[in-house]
Amino acid sequence: MTKAHALVVDDEPDILDLIKITLARMDLTARTAADIAEAKRLLSDQAFDLCLTDMQLPDGSGIELVAYINARYPETPVAMITAHGNMSSAVAAMKAGAFDFVAKPVNLQLLRRLVESALRLRESDLTPPEKTGSAQELLGQSRPMREIRRLITKIARNQAPVFITGESGTGKEVAARLIHGEGPRQAAPFVPVNCGAIPEDLVESELFGHKKGSFTGAVGDKPGLFQAAERGTLFLDEVADLPLPAQVKLLRAIQEKSVRAVGSQQEVPVDARIISASHRDLNTEVEQGRFRQDLFYRINVIELRMPALRERPEDIPVLAAHILERISRQTGRGPMRLSSAGLERLTSYRFPGNVRELENILERAAALCESDEIGVDELYLPQGSSSTTIAGSPAQTDVPLENYLDEIEKKAILQALEETRWNRTAAAKKLGMTLRSLRYRLSKLGLD
Ligand SMILES: Nc1ncnc2c1ncn2[C@@H]1O[C@H](COP(=O)(O)OP(=O)(O)OP(=O)(O)O)[C@@H](O)[C@H]1O
């Protein structure tokens, strides 16, 4: 690959020198500018693979330069150098299109990683996600789905924190995996964490790691999930479920790009892109004091809203066909299809649990269906708008007790899932069981 060229814009000669030396050691050539006017002149002279700019420049704000480069030279990623602790300017820069930021005093290890990420963007050979084999596709040709796919490709080139909203089962995790898989971090791990599923007193140790002996049961040093996601992406699912003390630590980790393990005195730099998601409205959580406003502001630099399935019913046929094909493959039975009445019924259903619910409905229908065509009866959709109700019917004496109890359990679980819009963490809470136990039961009852 040809030598990469960087443009560094800062009016402090010491910082310019430090960055220039670091870049030279990484085999990059660097040109420097002390103000915006000079930077614009250099940009018109030659193409750059990367630009690093200070926030406060003698003739204006670095944000202005970010916007200028984004508009004129969209192929050049720009990172902002911000004053220590000034997270709001970092957020403003990323909202203006900066792909990342580095705080002063510049940590050289983090700077090197940032430069490496930026350079991977110019490798037009970023492997498309379908080739990596791990990423799943977001299917659908409706307008909202096409827009989501376009946004994902754009967001993937950036390093800013992303917050994905949307009801349960709308594909938030699939979207997060795609953002990771289409970007320069694709070769590093994608680490998903269900924040609601970690017991409250273990959250900090899980996320940030712990030192041996820091609490009963800490029998050895253990790195946290942040470190597991080094150079990759940490996906904080159900982020609204994080207890407040862990929120304080998370805020610090994002701000400082470093973490401190439980029981340790030392901060260790970490380079993980944060993508978070919640099916809850975080504005309400903030208003009610359950989620820190400053943390929300920081994780929500880019917001991606996954549309509910009922907002795009035209995608139901293609999704259903795809899911049935997968079921046929997994079960080794011949191809299956929906009757036209079945398809019609599905497209008019509200799907509170979205695509995950569609998957469950079709899996259950496929198991019950004896022919290759699934009809309305096998879909077992709730009548009218009412959801499944727990049977009030007397015990049937002609079925084994165990089957009868399974049936009751199944109905209670389905009802809790429907009431929580198929959010398994919330459904488990409602049923007074752990998520692990709900998962076990879903699997036992063939509902997973
Ligand atoms: N557009 C889509 N195309 C294909 N499959 C999809 C699509 N959207 C969602 N799915 C499938 O639906 C299921 C649920 O998706 P996912 O787990 O990403 O949802 P989620 O929004 O993260 O749910 P939750 O909020 O409950 O965690 C997965 O099996 C996923 O593959």
Task: Please give a structural write-up.
Pfam families: AAA_lid_14, HTH_8, Response_reg, Sigma54_activat. Residues 138-367 form the Sigma-54 factor interaction domain. This is Sigma-54 dependent transcriptional regulator. InterPro entries: AAA+_ATPase (IPR003593), AAA_lid_NorR (IPR058031), CheY-like_superfamily (IPR011006), Homeodomain-like_sf (IPR009057), HTH_Fis (IPR002197), P-loop_NTPase (IPR027417), Sig_transdc_resp-reg_receiver (IPR001789), Sigma_54_int (IPR002078). The protein is an alpha/beta fold and 448 residues long. Helix content is 45%, strand content 15%. The protein has four domains: 4-122, Response regulator (Rossmann fold), CATH 3.40.50.2300; 129-305, 3-Layer(aba) Sandwich (Rossmann fold); 308-381, Helicase, Ruva Protein, domain 3, CATH 1.10.8; 395-448, Arc Repressor Mutant, subunit A (Orthogonal Bundle). The protein has helices at residues 13-25, 36-45, 62-72, 87-95, 108-122, 129-132, 143-156, 172-181, 203-208, 225-228, 244-256, 282-287, 293-299, 316-331, 340-347, 354-368, 376-379, 401-419, 424-431, 435-444; strands at residues 4-9, 28-33, 50-54, 56-57, 60-61, 78-82, 100-103, 162-165, 190-194, 209-210, 222-223, 233-237, 258-260, 267-269, 273-278, 302-305, 337-338, 373-374. A hairpin with a 6-residue loop joins strand 13 (258-260) and strand 14 (267-269). Helix 14 (316-331) packs across helix 16 and helix 19 crosses helix 20 (435-444). The longest helix is centred in the C-terminal third of the chain and has 19 residues, at 401-419. Residues 131-135 and 385-398 have low confidence and may be disordered. The structure holds adenosine-5'-triphosphate. Residues 136, 138-140, 166, 168-174, 237, 279, 319, 355-356, 359, 423 line the site of adenosine-5'-triphosphate (ATP).
